[in-house]
Fold:
Amino acid sequence: MSGVPEPQLEAQAQPRPQIVYIAGYGRSGSTVLDIVLGNHPEVFGAGELNMFLPDLADDGSCSCGQPYDQCDEWKPVLGELRRTYLNLTDTSFVADVYRSESTSGLLASPPRRRADDRRAGNLWRRFYPLLAESTGARIIVDSSKTARFSSRRLRRLAKDASLDVKVIHLTRDPRAVAFSEQRRGNNDRLESGGGGSAFGGLLRPLVGWMVANLAVDAHRLRLADVPVLHIRYEDLASEPGTAITKISGFLDIDPQPLTDRIVSDAGFDPGHGVRGNRLRRGSADSSEEPPAIRLRYDAAWASGLDRPLRLVSLVSYPLARRYGYDVLRR
Ligand SMILES: [Zn+2]
Structure:
């Protein structure tokens, strides 16, 4: 145990928000979807909330560039949380919450796991109503996904925190995901002057893609009362109006504020999220605000579909087929 006493939670006066959890693997367009939905007047796109405490402990900032306790959206949430949790950014508390949501936490002893899960459940049960109150949103988007750092978070929110959760299971062609990750890996290797194998660089994201998407199926079995909508990133990017209308029906919101932005090509405001890729944060060396986001289908990976990628992607064949991707086809 962390040795820190559990805070006594006050009775909650805030209404219960609807949580929309974006599940799946990284590099699948979750930041884009978070941003798009966050442009609806009833929705706040909160970003990768599994990284909120680590980011806060690390003096990170909101995507608007302000430290969290200076951003108008986050400041009231932090003020309230810090009154309840004096240890909010203590290393041991951050580690307890992380362990309760990540795959690695499965290695902890059962009593420790129960204590971690209860601690995380209490925190998030308090957190989301505060965020809804501060932002004025009825719906909070959490794009933490279900990769190894957050594979068990959905259960913490739906079960331990008893929150009202709907899941959007976002998938992207595993070859596009592996290509994107390999390209990033190549850049990192070039910068560090190191080498690396093409097969190894591709296998890791493909296995990660399978595990993260299978985690959604595992949650479906264990959380039968949590509604799940499957959306393919390719459909969102190539026919955004149709995809947004389908998602709006699932969330019971009017699609028009979002579809109007597509029709007028106004773009989507990156908002005030936790982490997310450079779409949300602009370039790291620029002090300028990140530009409005537009949905565009990026098919660059298809031209980079070389022999290693074609061969290694076969491991994902059965699961990819279930989501409507034919990795045998060029
Ligand atoms: Zn902000």
The chain has a mean pLDDT of 89. The pocket of zinc ion is lined by residues 62, 64, 66, 71, 73, 272 (CB under 6 Å). Residues 18-172+230-282+293-298 form one domain. The CA atoms of residues 122 and 161 lie 6 Å apart.
